[in-house]
Specification:
By secondary structure, the chain is α/β, with parallel strands linked by helices. Helix content is about 45%, strand content about 15%. A hairpin with a 7-residue loop joins strand 6 and strand 7 (about 135).
């Protein structure tokens, strides 16, 4: 299996990417990785390995770059050439922790959409209290969606969760302002009807407050609401641990208490760390494209590579293609 990686994307590039790649090739003996980026910078962190290759690039995509112009203006950027390798079938999938908008644009124009998928969805797996996690899609690839797009998200998410995360007959929920069947906008109401008729385990409307309790294995929504939900969860977790840390640092008594529960608190923090589940998949493209978090450390990059490995191994793209074709035939 061959995976292309943007070694220059992310807050800790290229060090975190290179070290995460090294962990991955030690873990998977049939895995070959090509790191796209500045050869000199990559080599400063890389112990020579026969299954890690370097493709030297002279440019990289910055966070300030306009996503829609990256493919045309930065043809030699590490992210663009990484996606080009997938397009040319030199790699089975690709990963970047760089500019999210640029990766979505590059993936769309270079890798291309699956026939029958109107819009791809950006889809991270987020933590739940039972440790299983849930897939949320879309979280920003498309601000506005039609009912049929939400149906496609549900089908793609269900296939991914069942075949990569090994959850049998995954529960699919529609994010809404209430659990009653008739709640929400006209778009959401129409999507509800489509999801009821789809070949998935649709459990109805779900509310944001129940997401981390594991109310569903797959939750679908438009990119605007999904991004707000994602950022709210991220912000709440960070604020919560900041408050706890401040409370434990107040005086000597609380500091002693902190020392006693330090390992337990670390366990809770790790349970809420969504990077343990890998990156966000850009589902609906002709090959797996994974967006790792911008602040990814080497462990998070390793998990993103693991996720990508299992996506390719399970041939999720082909499964989505078959299901989308079957949906179209039923509608015809």
């Amino acid at each position: 299996m061959k995976i292309a990686i943007d070694a220059m994307g992310g807050d800790h590039a290229p060090e975190a990417i290179v070290k995460g790649a090294s962990l991955a090739v030690d873990h998977y003996h049939d895995l070959e990785l090509t790191l796209f980026g500045n050869r000199e910078q990559i080599n400063s962190y890389l112990d020579k390995h026969p299954r890690i290759h370097i493709h030297h690039t002279t440019e990289k995509v910055e966070n300030t770059d306009e996503p829609s112009r990256v493919v045309r203006k930065k043809k030699d950027a590490s992210m663009v050439l990484m996606a080009e390798a997938v397009k040319n079938e030199e790699a089975d999938a690709c990963i970047s922790a760089g500019n999210t908008g640029a990766l979505m644009s590059t993936g769309l124009f270079k890798v291309g959409r699956i026939k029958g998928i109107d819009r791809p969805a950006l889809s991270p797996t987020l933590p739940t209290t039972d440790g299983k996690g849930f897939l949320l899609l879309d979280v920003g690839a498309n601000v506005e969606t039609k009912p049929n797009h939400l149906l496609q998200y549900a089908v793609m998410g269900s296939i991914y969760v069942e075949n990569v995360r090994n959850i049998n007959n995954p529960r699919v929920g529609l994010l809404n302002v209430g659990t009653e069947d008739q709640k929400g906008s006209d778009t959401v109401k129409e999507a509800f009807q489509l999801l009821q008729q789809a070949p998935i385990n649709f459990v109805g409307n779900v509310e944001a407050r129940d997401l981390l309790e594991g109310v569903a294995d797959v939750v679908v929504t438009d990119g605007f609401s999904g991004n707000i939900a994602l950022k709210s969860i991220e912000g709440t977790a960070l604020t919560l641990f900041s408050i706890i840390k401040q409370s434990f640092m107040k005086n000597m008594k609380t500091k002693l208490a902190a020392a006693m529960v330090k390992s337990d608190l670390k366990g809770v923090k790790d349970q809420l760390d969504y990077s343990e589940y890998g990156g966000a998949g850009l589902f609906g493209l002709r090959a797996p494209v994974i967006k790792a978090h911008g602040s990814s450390n080497e462990r998070a990059i390793f998990n993103a590579i693991k996720q990508t490995y299992h996506l390719v191994e399970a041939d999720v793209v082909s499964l989505i293609e078959k299901e989308v074709k079957a949906l179209q035939e039923r509608e015809a």
